[in-house]
Design goal:
The structure is a single chain. By secondary structure, the protein is an alpha+beta fold. It is built from 17 helices and eleven strands. The strands form four sheets. Strands 8-7-6-11 form a four-stranded antiparallel beta sheet, with helices on one face. α3 packs parallel to α6. The protein is globular and about 65 Å long. About 30% of the residues are buried.
Amino acid sequence: MDVSSTVKISFDSVPEDNQALAAEIQALVHNNGNKDPDETQLKSLLKRLYAKMCDFCGYRGNAATPDAKILAAWESFFEPIKALAQVKPHGHMMAARMTLYLASAFLKSFQLSRSLPMSKASFKPMALRCDFLIALDDALLSYLIHIWSHGNKLETFPWVFTDYPVYSCRSNICCADEFNPRGALHEQRTVKRFEAACVTRPSDLTPENGICSYWEQSRPEEGRPHDIPEHPDLSRPAYVNTQCIASNGPARETYSYGIVDEDTGQTQWRGRLMLRRSRQFVLDARKIAKTNLAKDRRRLAERALARSPLPLELEADVLGYLEDIPEHPYLSKLDLAAVYKPFPESGKKCVECASRGNKAADKMFKATCPQKSVAIWSLPLRMFHTFHRNRQGGLSLCIHSDCNGHHHDSSWLLRTAAIGLEDHLNGLLQGRCGPGVTLKSIGLGPLDPALLPTMQEDSQRRSRLFQNCWGGYNEKDVNEENLWIGINGLVDVILHGKVLIGLHTSGRSTTDINWMLGRTRQDEQRARLALTEVHSHCAYC
């Protein structure tokens, strides 16, 4: 199977090819109207899009090419993907999967330098990379939201957390070629990869296409409980060291880069989460869907038993085997499709500000311009917090939910810390969920008691809540959510800029925060400083 690109690839040709491909997809949609498109033609278009991603992933290009031009070529893939979303009936699923393939391709490409100097000169290049990562996340999120909204809130998205392999399609050489003469195994794998990439309906997403989500050693140690059949490839000596049953793919990946201290030559490795909000959306959707599916099972069972001749005692016994899953105290009150909004744009020129003068109201109007503001996504609250410039040149938290900026006076400013912040957040929650809802009622308040009498008890609690790092992905997700608030609640974490994970009569333990997600690392640091600066000293400082 020859899937290599016959046209020479470049940073100029990729946007042109993607524009042409988008036009073909749009023509297919237009010509079919409300009918399902021709399957062969649709798969051909998917194959071309996937092949282009594979080829571009392996393309290095000229090292002198500006970052903006490279990223513009990557952004051009959004156009055919967006056109795919218009295909009926499963266009949004195809668009979401192609966005995941695009994320994999970008992660594995090395056209952009992964090492940047420790200076202000790195701010703009890194901001460009972060903007693309945010655009990837927002694009995937938009398709997932559409699927969720049209799926009776029962979709669990098993195909999101899985591997989306993207390799260069122009090489027919296997990584263990001496055991694979004539590349037969490579050919077989390539065919399967393309078949998986060209899936057009959810029913074709089989476990072979990666619905499972875990790794396993190729040759498990004797006595291990996992009974996983050995993959046929493992019979080839030295071919693989680990058997990938399935990974969680780009939805859990991190874009890693290094900041180099040019004086010492030392490198600080950092990372930006690739699809963090999309990942959280799926986890949230699963919690809601799990409860809804349990309710549906019980309703079906009750309906069937109502027509059965069984005695009431036996009916009760049967229903007792069904699991009752309690509703999430916060997510059950939210419309996920409404709260997961796109990341606000920033850094662009504002036409409204250009026409303003130098009066006090005009200065405030310009200082609170949304293009100059910083938006921080709160993972535990599933909402954006907006920070505007204050008179001192720093940032201050705005009290308005879904703030559009351009304020005329300083009434937007949250002036008090601690109690004021807690009241503010509780007010936002009640505006969303109704009266009586507080941080404590939805599980984001402090533990009671926070202070334990002995180090041993504190250590056991810390291990139970925050250090379940050897479990599976589900355990790690729970561990991460516990770290949003620590043992003293979300307000404490926000005001102190650190997470209290241990507290006993003779000491305490803290760790870094993970509740906020900004457009860039600098935005997160500035917002964190703005929140901690207004806090006066307390017993937990």
